[in-house]
Amino acid sequence: MHSVFTSFSPRSARTQTSCRGPRFLTRNFAASVAVGLSLASAQAMAQDAGTAPGASANPSGAANSSVYDLLVGTYTGSGKSQGIYVYRFDTANGTITQLTSAQAVNPSYLVVSRDRQHVYAVNELPGDNGPASQRGGISAFRFDPASGQLIFVNRVSSDGNDPAYLALSPDGRYLLTANYSVASNPGGSFAVFPLEGERVLPSVLTVHHDGNGPVTGRQDNSHVHSTVFSPDGRYLFAQDLGADKLYSYRYTPDGTRGLFGPTESRYTLVKPGSGPRHMVFDEAGKHAYVTTEMNASVLVYDYDDGKLTLKQTLPMTTPGFKGKIGGGAIHFSPDGRFLYATNRGDANEILTYAVDASNGHLKLLNRRSTMGKTPREFAIDPTGRWLIVGNQDSDSVYFFRRDPQTGELASDPKKLEIGSPVDFKFVSPS
């Protein structure tokens, strides 16, 4: 692996490149950042948050409540959206009321702190038509769940192009973004940002991947699409759509081995031309599930101590399908018995899989039209009664009533019109 590791401070930056492997620049890093929570306490913290499988950064609160705040991230380039919207959603009857909105540029992915007091959003720039010299951003907001108010705090550079994903470290000390990067220079990367009080600080580490895949125009360079921590909190997986690799890194916040360092295996290869996009783990931490964007598949892996072993590959499309495809988001139901994934392109579907508890394998149960174009992200409310999916190119969000026992989605969803909706996060207001 050819990687560039860049350590930034507010006043200086230094870069080194090694073709033999990653090299860390951690000048005075251990001294400047105090050692925080142990991994054991970090795991306890994650468990206390009461989060659903594969959704550690979505602190929904107690699932016995029926009323939640629903945060919606959007694209703003068309002028139909202002940024982030907050709604009050009653899962008992499906009533939804807008509370407020906050202006932001292309906040296409959101993450909520575990104390529910802060919201972080990417600013996905420059986009397909922007200059390669323009960097994206990461914005921090103060959040009051009771009123739904968002107050802008600060914004820093994402140290890359087109940030498309956010993840909180298990101990809550760092925020990570995946810079997809449409432009070949600087190319795909992920960056690490310390969190201090209400603010997100400039990145202390940026990791660039060098590589490509066989699909010209889509895989000419690295495209890091997501960064996901393993359930044990010891590893980070970076899904690289451009290189057809699942990169793996050790997370050592005590500084004994650097903050992030490549594992012995460095990466797991996926089928050339498939384009891995998003990953989730089951609650037991024994299996990982990955969507591939370019050939629209779901990959099932056994997981053990930072290692992934492929066990199952399921195509999303029906046999003989000839249209455009685009595997997207993937999430578990709150009870972990069902897995859902979106397929864009001309399919525009959400698929429901049953999870075999004995081995983690999947069985396709059904597929449902998302009633619009380009479903990117979706979310299941903490009670499991509703699945909410946004159609980016139809300016619509549909609320599908869900049967928690069978996983089935009703055929008569409720509709909400929002300009270019992308991401959804539930938060308990109390």
From TrEMBL:
InterPro entries given in the database record: Cycloisomerase_2, Haem_d1_sf, Lactonase_7-beta_prop, WD40/YVTN_repeat-like_dom_sf
Source organism superkingdom: Bacteria
Signal sequence annotation: 1-46
Record carries keyword Signal: yes
SUPFAM superfamilies: C-terminal (heme d1) domain of cytochrome cd1-nitrite reductase (SSF51004)
Record-stated family: Belongs to the cycloisomerase 2 family.
Name of the featured protein: 3-carboxymuconate cyclase-like protein
Record organism: Caballeronia sordidicola
